[in-house]
């Protein structure tokens, strides 16, 4: 099953998360199918979501992928239309 979720990166105490489409059986930071955007919780300019490919996320959801709770709430807060 394909899940759209966050993959952790960055340094100690300053994480940067990548929104990815991945098989649910793979590890959190393991193999993924496609990068769909980036989430920076420590962004100074207030823009926490960057380079979000909304049309690709919609395509994955149409194919049967599910959004994780965190990604769903981030997209809702950023008012990204799916």
Q: What is the H level of CATH, i.e. the homologous superfamily?
A: Ribosomal protein S16
Subunit arrangement of the protein: single chain
Gyration radius from CA atoms, angstroms:
12 Å
Provide the spatial order of strands within the biggest beta sheet.
Answer: 4-3-2-1-5
Number of strands: 5
User: Quick one: CATH class?
Assistant: Alpha Beta
Main beta sheet strand tally, sense and closure: 5 strands, mixed
The 3D shape can be described as globular
Give a structural overview.
It is a single chain. The chain has a 5-stranded mixed sheet. The chain has one domain (2-77): S16 Ribosomal Protein, Chain: A, CATH 3.30.1320. Strand 1 and strand 2 form a beta hairpin. It has helices at residues 54-62, 69-77, and strands spanning 2-11, 14-23, 34-39, 49-50, 66-67. The model has no long low-confidence stretch (mean pLDDT 95). The two termini are 20 Å apart. It contains 2 helices and 5 strands. It is an alpha+beta fold and 82 residues long. Helices cover 22% and strands 37% of the residues.
Summarize the structure.
With 82 residues, the protein is of the alpha+beta class. It is 22% helix and 37% strand.
Helices and strands in order:
Layout: E1 2-11, E2 14-23, E3 34-39, E4 49-50, H1 54-62, E5 66-67, H2 69-77
Parallel strand pairs: 1-5
Antiparallel strand pairs: 1-2, 2-3, 3-4
